[in-house]
Design a protein that fits this description.
Blueprint (H helix, E strand, L loop, with lengths): L7 E7 L4 H4 L3 H13 L7 E8 L2 H14 L3 E6 L9 H4 L6 E7 L11 H7 L6 H10 L4 E7 L5 H22 L1 E6 L12 H8 L2 E5 L1 H5 L8 H14 L1 E2 L6 H21 L1 E7 L6 H19 L3 E3 L4 H14 L3 E9 L4 E6 L11 E8 L9 E7 L3 E10 L5 E11 L9 E6 L4 H10 L6 E5 L3 H11 L3 E5 L1
Parallel strand pairs: 1-2, 1-3, 3-4, 4-5, 6-7, 6-9, 8-13, 9-10, 16-19
Antiparallel strand pairs: 11-12, 11-18, 12-17, 13-14, 15-16, 15-18, 16-17
Helix pairs in contact: 7-13, 7-15, 10-11, 11-12
């Protein structure tokens, strides 16, 4: 990532204080289980440790730490029965989900020898979970439950915890970075238009506006020849460069701009970029316009989502998928192949090299960019056959956001020969049923694509941002 962020996850465990003097072995048992639980949380996140909570006062102290750290998510480990009054002070002032981790230490007790202390300490499949959820609901708090066992390992629990941590990273990334808007959206694509204040209010993402004049001049002071040489090598390693596009003088100019863009991204803390140029593309403007697609592709490769046509919402979708899955590609509906029962989905413009797993991305010069002014370098990416996930972000008339997601299978076969990235996707529905149901959700015409199946993690991102998710197919 050009701009590094690390989610902050509040973690605490809960038990009933009245048990401790009654059963002296429990406190050390609970401390040991809490320390072991913290070690299961991926080191991709920063743990804010709220400790072992057995009283309302300790819960309040944990809440103070969580608020001060602006946590993105809270894990609460239920060690045994505890009252919800021990939980609520820690989370009642937070606007993030509380994940109730209900892990039983042992698969089963030895019924012949186990006493009350063993039951409460090592095998209480916590009867308090329902109580906790009931009170979280009454407080208007978002929550989720993970139930499993420690003994022997539990891969479902490991997966759930990892997905929640990756989802939390989306919130932190949006809070700690900015989205750049260069120019304005493509004229007339009103589904792309957005209220930047509302975006900041609901998704925590601040917009920085840039004029194209500043972008044209962005590389004026770049004279580090070693950095340019290194970036030129990086471009060659990323793309197979076809035809006249392999002119090294032009590629060196591209490398110079990529170096400048990387510095700009880091200085402005940009996690996302949405741009559109609708001018005459003469002089230096024409030079920059001709190389923007591969230059922005180099940024996407390093974690900064870059969307064409000024579409900020699809940049957000791309960033979410890149953050949770490692790939994030711009897409839209292209055509239906009724003979083969697949929908062709793709887009021209910048893309994600990590998405191009079937073969190395290509770059070539085009005289005309379809539907846009100018010409220049066009990139094409080649997704692998196998599972694929699509995510769209749209809004209703009141400005509330909605996620729309679908999973399908990308199949090998023929695609159009226009140089665009393209997928042949088969869904659980017929192509006509899928396109109808997808369209009826009211998505924008752009959406993002990722290799693999990720709806479970997208659902967690949606809960973190308190945004509804509509699943079309999986």
């Amino acid at each position: 990532m050009l701009v590094e962020t690390k989610a902050r996850v509040g973690v605490f465990s809960i038990a009933l204080g009245a048990y401790l003097p009654q059963f002296p072995t429990l406190e050390e048992e609970f401390k040991s289980q809490f320390e072991a639980f913290k070690k299961t949380i991926p080191d991709t996140v920063e743990i804010i440790d709220g400790g072992l909570v057995t009283t309302k006062e300790l819960s309040q102290a944990a809440g103070d730490k969580f608020r001060a750290a602006d946590v993105d998510l809270v894990f609460m480990q239920l060690l045994t029965y505890a009252t919800s009054y021990n939980m609520l002070p820690a989370v009642k002032d937070l606007d993030v989900p509380v994940v109730l981790v209900n892990l039983q230490k042992l698969k089963a007790l030895d019924y012949d020898t186990a006493g009350t202390a063993e039951w409460l300490g090592e095998a209480y499949a916590c009867g308090a979970v329902g109580e906790m959820v009931a009170d979280l609901n009454r407080y208007g708090k978002r929550s989720a439950v993970i139930t499993g066992v420690v003994e022997g390992g539990d891969p479902d629990v490991t997966r759930e915890i990892d997905e929640w941590c990756r989802a939390a990273q989306c919130r932190r990334r949006f809070r700690d970075t900015n989205i750049a808007q260069i120019g304005r959206p493509y004229p007339g694509m009103m589904d792309l238009y957005i209220d930047e204040s509302n975006l900041y209010r609901r998704m925590h993402l601040y917009t920085k506006q840039f004029d194209w004049e500043k972008i044209w001049a962005i590389a004026d002071d770049v004279n580090d020849e070693a950095a340019i040489d290194e970036k030129l090598s990086d471009i060659h390693n990323t793309f197979d460069i076809l035809g006249e596009g392999s002119d090294d003088e032009k590629l060196r100019e591209m490398a110079k701009y990529v170096v400048a863009f990387e510095k700009w991204v880091q200085t402005e803390k940009l996690g996302l970029i949405a741009s559109h140029y609708d001018g005459f593309a003469k002089g230096q403007a024409g030079v920059v316009d001709s190389l923007l697609i591969p230059a922005f592709s180099m940024l996407i490769k390093q974690g900064t989502a870059c969307a064409v046509e000024g579409d900020m919402k699809v940049a957000i979708a791309m960033s979410i998928l890149k953050t949770i899955s490692g790939t994030g590609q711009l897409a839209e509906m292209y055509t239906i192949d009724f003979n083969d029962g697949v929908t062709l989905i793709g887009h021209s413009g910048s893309g994600d090299a990590d998405f191009s797993q079937a073969k190395k991305p290509t770059m070539k010069v085009m005289d005309v960019f379809h539907g846009k002014t100018g010409g220049g370098y066009l990139t094409q990416f080649y997704p692998p056959a196998g599972p694929v996930t699509y995510l769209a972000i749209t809004q209703d008339g009141e400005g509330y956001f909605k996620f729309v997601a679908a999973e399908g299978v990308n199949e090998e076969g023929k695609i159009l020969n226009n140089g665009d990235t393209m997928m042949r996707t088969r869904f659980a529905l017929s192509p006509s049923e899928f396109v109808t149901k997808w369209s009826e959700t009211g998505p924008t015409h752009h959406f993002a694509a990722a290799v693999g199946q990720h709806i479970d993690t997208i659902a967690k991102v949606a809960k973190i941002f308190d945004v509804p998710l509509e699943i079309v197919t999986r």
